[in-house]
Design brief:
Oligomer: single chain
Number of strands: 9
Distance between the termini: 40 Å
Helix content: 40-55%
CATH topology of the largest domain: Alpha-Beta Plaits
Bound molecules: guanosine-5'-triphosphate
Number of domains: 2
Structural class: alpha+beta
Strand order of the largest sheet: 6-7-5-8-9
Radius of gyration: 25 Å
CATH class of the largest domain: Alpha Beta
């Protein structure tokens, strides 16, 4: 793939790795070090690195595995040959790199890649620190689901995208039933275990980690992008029954209620949120343990809403 992206050479021996620049990293304006220093974004750094690595050997793909997740260089595909290396700095493993190519990774190529990798280490460490801080700021510390701030941002973007592409989109708001009694009777730490169990149920049922959120307390949200009405209903029912049948939750008498609203194209994020919240209110007030769909029009929205609205419209 990389040889298609401009004036790159296409493999073996095109670059000579002389001892003069092996000793001191090249920090000139166009050097790999300088290019990597222009961004703290892991994906962008990987793409920059892959361009340089593609000069040592034509690559089909490059994957970076970090504690924060896995990243693939843009356009990556499988290759016949693989080569894996571990990127460490100050005895700390930062990441694992997996190269794919249709050519073998000869000792010379491996040596060339090793030199390039060494030029990435400081920038990579900085990018990892920044990503970790960003993730912490956007995650609920107990369940590690997205927090309310992350929801607000993701929700507004998802609605915008769905409208632009005219694709179906739905929002689920979920509130636990009878959770307070767990805290009151069993204690706060068992209450925390309940919240963790619910987050696990959500992950297992939905498998879209980025679109799952905990607002705080016993309130959760799910963004269902590219999901039509029928599928959104099925997802909500599946989630409800997963939580209702989870043995730890059953033992403690905890269930959940879900409000579901689908985006129609004249709506703003704020409208959609209010509709899901209204549906949740209906689910609660009609006996709990149910999924309710939004049936109300915008004009019918009242001050019965259970969540204060903070989503930017
Ligand atoms: N363990 C634990 N409890 C929390 C946390 N955040 C909020 N809570 C508790 O969550 C409970 C939420 O109250 P409600 O939603 O009224 O409780 P509920 O029994 O589920 O009420 P219904 O929705 O009417 O069934 C309160 O007891 C809060 O103290 C937390 O991080 N950990």
């Amino acid at each position: 793939m990389w040889q298609e992206q401009g004036n790159l050479t296409n493999a073996f021996g095109d670059l000579t790795f002389g001892s003069s620049w092996q000793d001191t990293p090249d920090c000139s304006e166009n050097s790999l070090v300088s290019q990597l220093q222009t961004t703290l974004d892991l994906q962008q750094q990987l793409d920059i690195f892959s361009m340089s690595a593609g000069r040592a050997l034509t690559l089909n793909g490059l994957t970076l595995k970090t504690a924060l997740g896995e990243f693939q260089a843009t356009g990556s595909k499988a290759g016949e040959y693989q080569h894996k290396t571990s990127l460490s700095l100050d005895q700390q493993v930062l990441a694992e790199l997996s190269y794919e190519s249709q050519y073998p990774f000869t000792p010379l190529v491996q040596q060339q890649l090793l030199i390039l990798e060494s030029e990435w280490l400081f920038s990579l460490r900085n990018a990892l620190v920044v990503s970790r801080l960003q993730q912490m700021a956007l995650k609920d510390p107990l369940t590690t689901l997205g927090n309310r701030r992350f929801f607000d941002d993701s929700f507004a973007k998802a609605v915008q995208l769905a409208k632009r592409h005219q694709s179906p989109f739905a929002l689920l708001l979920l509130d636990l039933d009878n959770f307070k009694q767990v805290n009151d009777i069993e204690g706060h730490s068992i209450g925390d275990d309940v919240l963790l169990k619910v987050a696990d149920c959500m992950r297992e049922t939905l498998r879209v980690t980025d679109s799952l959120f905990r607002f705080g307390g016993d309130e959760f949200a799910v963004l269902l992008t590219d999901t039509d009405a029928e599928h959104a209903e099925r997802v909500a029912e599946r989630l409800l029954s997963a939580i209702k049948s989870e043995s730890f939750l059953v033992k403690l008498g905890v269930g959940c209620s879900i409000g579901l609203a689908r985006l129609s194209h004249e709506q703003q994020p704020r409208d959609l949120f209010h509709l899901a919240d209204e549906a949740l209110y209906q689910a609660k007030s009609s006996g709990k343990g149910k999924v309710r769909h939004s049936q109300v029009s915008r004009a019918n929205l009242t001050d019965k809403l259970t969540h204060p609205m903070r989503v930017a419209s």
